[in-house]
Amino acid sequence: MLAGSALITWTSLGYFDFEELPPFVIEKLQQGLRFESLWMVALRAHVASALVTFPLCLILTTRMLQRRPALHRWLGRVTGVLVLSVLVPSGAVLALDAKGGRAVSAGFLLSGALVAWFVVAGVLAARRRDLVGHQRAMRHVVAQMSVAVSSRALMFVLDTRGVDPDIAYVVALWVPVVMSALIAELVSSRLVWNRGRAVGVVRSVAVERSRREVFP
């Protein structure tokens, strides 16, 4: 994912060239946009915030940073503010004119809503000292943000297979969005089950030891 993020960063630098527009932007402008100026501002804001927040989310999941609570908390707050105030709102604006029609727009809006929901849920869980709930929420955030990489990879595969672009856009978005959410939930459920099982084993051993001490 870090490699994919770096590749997206490299290919997105053209969006900040104010003298020469990238082919994607020219194509969208030729198709006709309801609010061109707003769309351009949203595009640059979305790309800039994504280039910062996605790597930060990946770094925040590492043990190296999780072992440094103060730094983890500070970077987490910065990332959360950028996601909620810039990334998600600008993505919603871009989703309204997404290439691929209403189905793709709905997919982008759903993914953005999931990111916003789980960022808030993760922050509230952290404030309650609920680390398990915080980790579950953050897995969903990272999973949905990883769609930027997995969707492009799937789109490339479908393009090489000669799939109709109208169908490819829908498949390349919805499959990563749904699968990422399912994988994040399955991983979280499995970890919770493993923790519960481990706690149960420890408790049973403690009870057995107490029983032997009370009834020698």
Q: What radius of gyration results from the CA coordinates?
A: 22 Å
- What is the overall silhouette? globular
Strand-residue proportion: under 5%
N-to-C SSE string, H for helix and E for strand: HHHHHHHHH
Total domains = 1
Total of DSSP H or I helical runs spanning 4+ residues: 9
Number of strands: 0
Sheet bearing the most strands, described? none
Q: What do the pLDDT scores average to? A: 85
The class by helix and strand makeup works out as mainly alpha
The CA-CA distance between the termini, in Å, is 57 Å
- Unreliable stretches (pLDDT < 50, length at least 5) are none
> Which percent bin holds the helix content?
over 70%
List keywords for this structure.
216 residues, mainly alpha, 0% strand
Short description:
84% of the residues lie in helices and 0% in strands.
Describe how the helices and strands are arranged.
Blueprint: H1 2-12, H2 23-31, H3 36-60, H4 63-66, H5 69-95, H6 102-127, H7 131-145, H8 147-160, H9 165-214
Helix pairs in contact: 1-3, 3-5, 3-7, 5-6, 6-7, 6-9, 7-9, 8-9
Describe this structure in words.
Helix content is 84%, strand content 0%. By secondary structure, the chain is mainly α. It has one domain. The termini are far apart.
